[in-house]
Specification:
- With about 80 residues, the chain is an alpha+beta fold.
- It has one domain.
- It is built from 4 helices and 2 strands; from the N terminus they run H-H-E-E-H-H.
- The protein has helices spanning about 1-10, 25-30, 55-65, 75-85; strands spanning about 40, 45-50.
- A two-stranded antiparallel sheet has the order 1-2.
- The protein is globular.
- The two termini are about 20 Å apart.
């Protein structure tokens, strides 16, 4: 999801992945970064401690770049049917 959004909007995407224990150390809290899982767009925390969908991330990117907001994803019957499997 993230690399595709980076290419689409011409922005740099940085993904940080560490063992869960690394996110609960004093050193990590001193960095003033959000609790994982989290998504930040610029300096703004979009979500912390939860997962988030591509549409929500893309919407926040567009807000930061002063671009038109993306159209909502079509959640038709077939998508619901095949996603459930």
């Amino acid at each position: 999801m993230m690399p595709g959004l980076g290419e689409k909007y011409g922005i740099e995407i940085e993904t940080i992945s560490k063992p869960k224990a690394a996110y609960i150390t004093d050193e990590y809290f001193e960095l003033e970064l959000p609790v994982a899982p989290a998504v930040m767009v610029g300096d703004e925390i979009v979500v912390e401690g939860l997962d988030i969908g591509q549409f929500e991330v893309e919407t926040e990117i567009c807000k930061q770049l002063d671009l038109p907001l993306p159209a909502p994803e079509n959640k038709g019957f077939l998508k619901k049917l095949f996603r459930a499997q």
